[in-house]
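[Automated response] Your request has been received and processed.

Submitted sequence:
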Amino acid sequence: MSDMTFKPKFFVPGDWNALFGFGTNILVNVLVLTGLLKYVIGMPGEILFGRILPALGLMMCLSTCYYAYLAYSLAKKTGRTDVAALPSGISVPHMFVVTFVIMLPIKIATGDPMAAWGAGLMWVFVQSFVLMIGSLIGPTIRKITPRAALLGSLAGISITFISMSPAAQMFSTPVIGVICFVVIMASWFGGVKYFNGIPGGLVAIAVGTVIGWGSSALGLGYGGLTIAGLTGSFSGFGLSIPLPAIGILAGGFKYLGVILVTAIPFGIYDLIEALDNVESASAAGDAYPTTRVLGADGVVSLIGCLMGNPFINAVYIGHPGWKAMGGRIGYSAVTGIAILVLTWFGIIGVLSALIPVVAILPILLYIGMLIGSQAFQETPSKHAPSIILALLPQLAAWGKVQIDGALGAAGTSAAAVGLGKLAQVGVLYAGLEVMGGGATLAGIVLGAITVFIIERQFDKAAMFALAGAVFTFFGFIHNEAIGLMRSPEVSVSYLGVALTLFLCSKFASFSPLVEDVHHPAAMPEAAE
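Generated structure:
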């Protein structure tokens, strides 16, 4: 029983490590989305720095402070001093989706970045309600879904969309990236303490910045830092408080038909990803109420949207990582307050010109490594095959993104080249497209089927296969757009799997598993 007079500490020494790690993670995302809006959408500076970024800062401050409050409440309730707040921030996959799938086509069609802004706001508006409605059924989904399926799908995201790009960029500029990565690993994996306890993340950033500016002085240009870029960045200083953007949001209503095609499935993606991350936190010892977590994501995203922010909020992957490096309650709230200050006072532009991004990217790779390994560490070893299967849809989705990007840069597409020609050289584009559609949910379905087969609970495996048929029929998985009969062959395949598993549950006989003495089929009574 907890001591009701116990008052958790808001900030402990370990929060410094998590603050610089998580804070720089968030900073990278803010710098990236700033570049997307400025250079891809062509958003005017007064709108970007005076309206959108301040609204973003408000949303993130509300989110991180709320999750710090949940952590404080959990610590007080349990009397524990090791409770860590859930990390949260801009949903990174959606950051690119809303930019390239929603805002950019509308900007190209209309020539008006303001119209693109309105469409982005409407996209978040729809997603917010998907999250809030989904929060009511989230606990049930989490209860019936095996941990290996949830964490396996999450590991797929960590390996592909979180780890691969930072790793590639690090090795593109290895003098900064690889050295900073070793500085981080020595501290966060190896336990090395730097100069008077300075956090390893801060040391890595400092080392990368010194190398970047030193190479610039020598004319080598590692990190792309220039004096002209730094001095020009100071022109953006000034206080900008977010203002309601209801009129801009209403202007995006005319694009609702286009928006629903992606907003609803990606809202479901956010719902499932949040469930994954809540499960990840629970595996690390911190059990948070699923409904309150999912509902908060929807509410703060809606507030940010109404104030002009076209990006969705999400609970982040990585709670075990920040907790392992000492993060508790304060790192979350302080990060949100810091981002609010940076966005409201126009400091983001200065930081982007001062710090080489490649010095920050190793932190993302570290988190990807930690979460990928957690899937195997926090589940029974016999469930490892299900984790591998749950990874595959994310690998397929990532591979398709790489192929599309390469062909697009060459001025062509998979359809123009021909799927047959691609298959002849080993690029199975059609298979990647089907397998990677709705990758997060698809990975969970496939992983759950495998777990229940391993456990010989074939009736439960059949129910997940049936769910896979329904999800596929409506385009939520194995397709990139919702609708009826999106992938009929895959739907029929899932029905066949469900029927096979159902027949196994009723009529199959089993041989005992000698290597697994704990399995019910290996018990003496099971063989009688």
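Summary generated for your ticket: Residues 61 and 283 are 26 Å apart (CA to CA). Residues 517-528 have pLDDT under 50 and may be disordered.
If you did not submit this request, please reply to this message.
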